[in-house]
Amino acid sequence: MSEQDLLLIEQYYRNELGEAERLAFEQRMAEDSNFREEALLHQRAMTAIRLYGKELMKKKLQDRPLVTPKPKPRIWPWMVTTGAVLAVVFGIFWWSEADEKPPLPPQPVPPPFVDTLHQPPPPLPTVHPPVAELKPDAKKLFADAFKPFKPSQDETVKSADTSKAQGSGMSRLASLNKLKQLAQEEKYSESLATIEQLPKELQSNAAIMFFKANSLLALGRTDEAAPLFEGIASNQQTAYASYAQWYAALCALKKGDLPRAKKWLRAVASGSDASETQRMEAKSLLEKLN
């Protein structure tokens, strides 16, 4: 052992090291087995010296006679004895202080080996959206509710749908019958082509505009169909007003405009021209939106 290490051990047992030096000393003892063994041996040696000093002091006190003849004063032997006694007493005091040092720290125990390579990863936490943020799926509701309009075989139209005929009434009725047939056969592109060939005055007819909007919506052209349905829905003189209100609501629903969809659904649910089936369907869809 080097002299520096020996001095360091003596300073440690004399409690002369600072806090940082003491922690470094104890850390070295925990990691260096040779250094720890030398420190323990030094401690045992100093302990043996301290015990020997105690025994020597005890023996001197026991061997001292109670009454001793008064010797001739001799200064030199008295000084030697006093010095030895003081040395022993100082040694006892010093080693008593050393005994109050805390015990050596236990050696660190390595953590148990855990094979993390072959362990499955922990499951990801399930994140639930707040209830307040849940909204109705407008596109799904549209897909569930939408069916293109198909007129019945014996359907008749109101007089307003064929008014202003002035000699062209038969042509207008023939055009409507053609559009009804195409709607029954789901030929929506052909229906639009037929309407484009009609005179402008016939194209502005509410019934013909309804079949045009119906074909546009069936072909996915919602932005074009929506204003046509809303215009027809406001015309209470046509037989297709309640149907137009329903499809205007579906157009708004597909576009994600829930307030507008609810507006037209309420019009169907409370409309006097709507059938019982139309009113029930409108109320059911309103409940899903609310």
Report the radius of gyration as a whole number of Å: 54 Å
> Uncertain spans, ≥5 residues at pLDDT below 50?
156-168
Which architecture name of the largest domain does CATH use? Alpha Horseshoe
The CATH H-level superfamily of the largest domain is Tetratricopeptide repeat domain
Output the structural class: mainly alpha
Treating each run of at least 4 consecutive H or I residues as one helix, how many helices?
A: 13
Q: Give the CA-based shape.
A: rod-shaped
Overall average residue pLDDT? 78
Your description of this structure?
This protein has 13 helices and no strands. Helices cover 63% and strands 0% of the residues. The longest helix is centred in the N-terminal third of the chain and has 31 residues, at 33-63. Mean pLDDT is 78; it is low at 156-168. It folds into 2 domains: 3-66 and 74-99; 134-289, Alpha Horseshoe (Serine Threonine Protein Phosphatase 5, Tetratricopeptide repeat). It is mainly alpha-helical and 290 residues long.
Helices and strands in order, then pairings?
Layout: H1 3-13, H2 19-31, H3 33-63, H4 75-99, H5 138-145, H6 169-184, H7 188-196, H8 200-203, H9 206-218, H10 222-233, H11 241-254, H12 258-269, H13 276-289
Helix pairs in contact: 1-3, 2-3, 3-4, 5-11, 6-7, 6-9, 7-9, 9-10, 10-11, 11-12, 12-13
List its traits.
290 residues, mainly alpha, Serine Threonine Protein Phosphatase 5, Tetratricopeptide repeat
Structure described in brief:
This protein is an all-alpha fold. The protein contains 13 helices and no strands.
